[in-house]
Amino acid sequence: MTRILHVAQPVDGGVGRYVADLARWQLGAGLEVAVASPPGQLADDVGAAWVRWDAVRSPGLSAAGETRRLAAVVRSFAPDVVHLHSSKAGLDGRLLLRGRVPTVFQPHGWSWQAGGGAVGAASVAWERLGARWTDLTVCVSADERKAGEARGVVTARRRTEVVPNGVDLDRFRPVPAAQRAAYRAELGLDPDTPVAVCVGRIDAQKGQDVLVRAWASVRVECPDAILLLVGDGPGRAGLVGDGVRLLGEQPDAPRFYALADVVAFTSQWGEAMALTPLEGMACGRPVVATDVAGVRESVGEGCGAIVPPGDPGALAAALTDRVRSPELADAEGRRARTHAEANLDVRKTHARITDLTLRTSEGC
What we know:
It is built from 14 helices and 13 strands. The chain is α/β, with parallel strands linked by helices. The strands form two sheets. A seven-stranded parallel sheet has the order 3-2-1-4-5-6-7, sandwiched between helices. Strands 10-9-8-11-12-13 form a six-stranded parallel sheet, sandwiched between helices. α12 crosses α13.
């Protein structure tokens, strides 16, 4: 039986959820799977399959010690194939393995997108080198693949596959009106209050500061509209505005999507194919999303609106249209759920990834 070792850093947010869901699916398919990562939500989600691997998120001098610790994990588990998730795991894992064990690398957003200048140039140089020790690169969107091609990391000589992200259609689903009203009541909201929801880490990349500026304009048109920010992060302290509520980290994201009139996704850069728009659509809600990588591939026609990053005016107009018109929001939400059912089932994603991983382990 093929033994698959997933190595992940970071362990939270979309990457952590992705790895946990994939590992659980593979375990359910009868494969031998382990997940090496620092402690965190990912460790809790995969339970007994988790193996501790201490690693910080940023590159630096810590890589030497992290690589030694990862070597011990590899010796103990003896994988047939190693699946590295995100840039830091991709760095440590490929420095260690250097092609000696079949290796799958999934960037979940390229490392150079996190910073420009010398840091960005060094990231591109490393990714070109690391690609030589990669048997298969998996991109979650055509946009991500194109970005790799533009920097010479993805080439015709190196095997690369695009496997779009998916969503759990059973966990993320529409709810009856009575349940939606109950979710709102828990927050002190009336059933008819116009509500927008933004779920995600709060920092400059995710653009909640732009969203809060836009919300001031939404409130001019809809004075009783409420914006719920679900998540936490370094940008939280500065997010203050009329009708803006910061709820912090919440364990049950689907209920917040379900109670919304519209889901806002406001990332400014650094995405590949974010999960938030997929989850919002699966819950039967329209999505107003910034035009970053993967959005046009995932947000179906008639399922919401796509606006330029960094444009609070365009963002405000799209949000206002939907919080002011429940009929529009509901019609787009129905189309969004239909689109998710037809195109975004995570079971298809997991099956495709697993097939590619097993073929890689066999040298195919």
